[in-house]
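Quick illustration, no need to memorize.
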Amino acid sequence: MFYAHFWTSAYNVIINAIELNIPLFVATGEDIITIQKYLTAREVLLLRVTVQGVICVSTKNRKESISLHLTNRDKCIVLPNSVDATKFFLLITLNYVII
């Protein structure tokens, strides 16, 4: 399996993933996704078809990746900073004293 941290890394290994028939996954956490500015429509399509799964650190990253046609919603999972909140959580109780 190829794991690419951000869309630019996914693009850099896409040919290897295709030629070697190795699944490609990407984690997207970019502040602003800009890779589509440097790719042709065909290259964007190649990413969308080849990438088998996308870990998004926020719903914003998922929405942006989908709106830029880099992936489909069914390939995405949102894990805030790659933490599955259903398995790990922090309970904090704050007590405030107002004078």
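The CA atoms of residues 59 and 78 lie 6 Å apart.
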